[in-house]
């Protein structure tokens, strides 16, 4: 059903070497910036004018590098907010014991 919000759609997986490239809020931001430029995600991420859609919703698993209440994570998403000139970014995690 075109145009509806859902959990189905294209999948993006970023693989990095734990030995040489750590997983941080900044590396997640680089992954996000790559993701929104991929053809498979442009329809979901950008409007007909080519600009980022006004709201971004991000579900995370609350690992130390992406927990919504982590200062570095908040700073990274604030930077994303400013870079993409969106109206809102909502980063959330499931309650403990309720993630997939």
List keywords for this structure.
100 residues; 2 strands; 3 helices; alpha+beta
Describe, in plain words, how this protein is organized in 3D:
The protein has 100 residues and is α+β, with helices and mostly antiparallel strands. It contains three helices and two strands; from the N terminus they run H-H-E-H-E. Strands 1-2 form a two-stranded parallel ribbon. It is globular. The model has no long low-confidence stretch (mean pLDDT 83).
What can be said about this structure in brief?
This protein is of the alpha+beta class and 100 residues long. 32% of the residues lie in helices and 12% in strands.
Question: Which helices and strands, and how do they pair?
Answer:
Elements: H1 25-35, H2 39-45, E1 55-60, H3 71-84, E2 88-93
Parallel strand pairs: 1-2
